[in-house]
Amino acid sequence: MLKSRTSILGRKVGSAKVVSVAEVFSTPKGGLAYKYNLLCACGHSFVLSRAALYLPGEHCPNCYKKSKVPSLSNHPIFKIWESMVRRCYSPSHSMYHLYGGRGVTICPEWLGGSAGKKTSVEGFSTFLSYIGERPSPRHTIDRVDNSRGYEPGNVRWATFAEQAKNRRSTVLVSMGGETYPFATLLRKLNVNSGHAYKTMKAKSISHQEFIDGILATHKESL
Ligand SMILES: [Zn+2]
User: Fold this and answer.
1) Is the full-model pTM beyond 0.85?
2) In this structure, are 79 and 48 located in the same domain?
3) Residue pLDDT, tens place only, 79-90
4) In angstroms, what is the span from residue 69 Cα to ligand 1's centroid?
């Protein structure tokens, strides 16, 4: 009897697992009822009756509470933060050679915060409260001094025009909320620069319009 009641041990219930029998008691009808100890991945322990184990949904009170809080990772700036992290720390990112590969770093508070992890939502939150909301879709993250990393005092929202003024030698274009040197994007998109300039001249379009046209054709995310 006890064997069949304990075979449920180890079963996954939401983000928790059944670890042991908490209580066995008699029902008014004379049967036996069981309650179980559960341990959640979040570290929280709690008790559930056998019947409740089979109900759908999140049972851990701690995780249930959290799931009601709107996730910071849905924030419009989260993706921008994420690709900033990836181009500095993930060698598989298409722009890594221009950032992480050149020693560009992000200050620890904007990565993992005090959570001690490499990256965390807390790090994003700290970054967000420093840089503030994006003033417009034309604004991207700009490092004021290119020889320094992403850190307080060196990062701001800037329009492409403002950034281009800072670096006259390089034409900057935007893709997916990020700013890149035009020539770099051409290489990435496998577009011949002679062809690019000829097309821009013939159609009287800007560098940005040219890139937008290519992306609309390929619909590829880089
Ligand atoms: Zn939990």
Assistant:
1) no
2) no
3) 899 989 999 999
4) 14
